[in-house]
Amino acid sequence: MTEILLSVKNLKKYFPVKQGFLIKRVVAEIKAVDDVSFEIKKGKTFALVGESGCGKTTVARTVLRLTDPTAGEIFFEGKEISKLRYKELLPFRRRMQIVFQDPMSSLNPRMTVGQIVTEPMLFHKVAKTKNEAYEKAKKLMEMVGLKTFHLDRYPHQFSGGQRQRIAIARAISIEPEFLILDEPTSSLDVSVQAQIINLFLDFQQQFRFSYLFISHNLGLVRFISHDVGIMYLGKIVEMGETDDVFEEPLHPYSKALLSATPIPDPEVERARQRIILRGGVPSPISRPNGCFFNPRCPFKMEICEKEYPEFRKVSQNRWVACHLVK
Ligand SMILES: Nc1ncnc2c1ncn2[C@@H]1O[C@H](COP(=O)(O)OP(=O)(O)O)[C@@H](O)[C@H]1O
Ligand code: SF4
Ligand SMILES: [Mg+2]
């Protein structure tokens, strides 16, 4: 049986929209994450995909408890962590790390790389002394493809790809089991992207890391992930094993997203049906009635404007929220 490392159940994160000059009143809610459930297996990668603003980063921040959920549960190795207080949360914080999209803004420009990489080790007591942390940092530099003399330099002295390597060294310095990768290569050149992705894959093989991989790059998602959830306006609309979903997407939104990515084989490319997405993503403050995708959906039916479709299990490993899919 596959072991589950992280399990998220009915997660919600709403942000109040306030208005008023002196007295601010809540006039609306942004339902950034609205009833999202998924599981991440040990040593495997679960990808969250979707257009900008659909709630991916908010899922990440809530899972890490950088922000409190509005509702729902988060289980880490079976232990519910969504309501733990700071002190009880600390041991779990050590086991979960995040790598952000923009390495420059996530690295303190006034600290040397050595300080950046050793700080979490000392804070979480993974190393007992500064010396021990520094020795570990030297090894980490090699692991991420940097040199030990880089430890004495500052973030601005590096390229984007190198800075992301520093961020990765810092993240893995405290020997986590679970890493959230929030669009970790989207600010990098394509050739550098591939190197960083390979680093993640190497580490997963070596250390059995579990990843939550967030991206809108479907090619990367297919390459790196085992399972995938496709998000639209705060909800997962389709979820399943990556190969299955990519080979036969069931939800019209997944179909549209996937049909927009080029396939290297010209025969397949010519034969397949392209679904062009009309219009943009509606505002998360005023989502359409019924299925949120209905204004853009070429298969819309009457019921689609009335009822939000239930997120149902339609086969062994596949969940879909669409009135069409029985
Ligand atoms: N701190 C916040 N306060 C208010 N709204 C927020 C906040 N963080 C995110 N949002 C809103 O929540 C929605 C989802 O954002 P986000 O999770 O960043 O999406 P993604 O990462 O998929 O691009 C967006 O409409 C965004 O504007
Ligand atoms: S529920 Fe209706 S509108 Fe929504 S994706 Fe399915 S067919 Fe399209
Ligand atoms: Mg984001």
Approximately what portion of the residues adopt beta-strand conformation? 15-25%
Reported for the largest beta sheet, the result is: 8 strands, mixed
Rough outline = globular
Q: Might you state the CATH topology name?
A: Rossmann fold
Identify every distinct bound molecule in the structure, by name, code or SMILES.
adenosine-5'-diphosphate, iron/sulfur cluster, magnesium ion
Strand order of the largest sheet: 6-7-8-3-9-10-12-11
- Which CATH architecture? 3-Layer(aba) Sandwich
Number of strands: 12
CATH homologous superfamily - what is it? P-loop containing nucleotide triphosphate hydrolases
Count of spatially separate domains: 1
Distance between the termini: 28 Å
| Helix share, percent | 25-40%
Q: Unreliable stretches, pLDDT < 50, 5 or more residues? A: none
Radius of gyration: 21 Å
Q: Structural class, from helix and strand content?
A: alpha/beta
Count of DSSP helices? Answer: 11
Notes on the structure:
The protein has 326 residues and is of the alpha/beta class. It has one domain: P-loop containing nucleotide triphosphate hydrolases (Rossmann fold), CATH 3.40.50. It is 32% helix and 25% strand. The chain contains 11 helices and 12 strands. It has helices at residues 56-63, 86-95, 103-106, 113-123, 130-143, 160-172, 190-207, 218-224, 242-247, 252-259, 266-271; strands spanning 4-19, 25-41, 45-49, 71-76, 79-80, 96-99, 178-182, 210-215, 227-232, 235-241, 312-315, 318-320. α4 (113-123) packs across α5. It starts with a strand and ends in a 6-residue tail after the last strand. The chain binds adenosine-5'-diphosphate, iron/sulfur cluster and magnesium ion. Iron/sulfur cluster binds next to loops.
